[in-house]
Amino acid sequence: MSTGAEMSSRVLTVPNVISMVRLALVPVFAVLIVVGEDGWALLVLAVSGVSDWLDGVLARRLNQVTRLGQMLDPFADRLFIFVTLIGLAWREVVPLWLVLAIVARDVLLALTVPVLARLGYGTLNVTTVGKVATFALLYAFPLLLLAEVPGWVGAVAHVVGWAFTWWGVGLYWLAGLQYVAQVRRLVAAG
């Protein structure tokens, strides 16, 4: 992500600590979803979503943009998405095709890592489309879990949750294709 702020190699910053806490919440969420504690699982997902937004805002405002943060934040997002998908699929809240569609995109991007490393590049900057896709997916999952509640709350959450899901998956793949195109340009130039 290009922020215009000076890049730091510091490790212990407020945004990095927030990202580390988000990573620590992943197994907590996994256990909660497996044992059927949906209310607590929803709370953990909400805290994760807010912390994802907060760490980026604080990194820019406090001038604490770090190399570690630029790797930690998307890694925490991917891990939360993956664990949430597996948990929701295990509970039969989401279909297996959704898990496969999201994991396939991440596998595709993982295949570009050796190419980038061979050319001397690190990870690619997160695009706006990628950020919006992640936002949509991270907000879709709590809604899909909330859709399990009987009555009008569950019905509304179902519709809104699947709207976020479809947008999220579409944008997730669009961002993935943008990353692949960026890697192709780097290969052609390098």
From TrEMBL:
Keyword set includes Glycoprotein: no
Pfam families: CDP-OH_P_transf (PF01066)
GO cellular component, one term: membrane
InterPro entries for the chain: CDP-alcohol_PTase-I (IPR050324), CDP-OH_P_trans (IPR000462), CDP-OH_PTrfase_TM_dom (IPR043130), CDP_ALCOHOL_P_TRANSF_CS (IPR048254), Phosphatidylglycerol_P_synth (IPR004570)
Keyword Metal-binding listed: no
Subcellular location: Membrane
Protein's name in the database: Cardiolipin synthase
Protein family membership: Belongs to the CDP-alcohol phosphatidyltransferase class-I family.
PANTHER family, alphabetized: CDP-DIACYLGLYCEROL--GLYCEROL-3-PHOSPHATE 3-PHOSPHATIDYLTRANSFERASE 1, CHLOROPLASTIC, CDP-DIACYLGLYCEROL--GLYCEROL-3-PHOSPHATE 3-PHOSPHATIDYLTRANSFERASE-RELATED
EC number of this enzyme: 2.7.8.41
GO terms (BP aspect): glycerophospholipid biosynthetic process
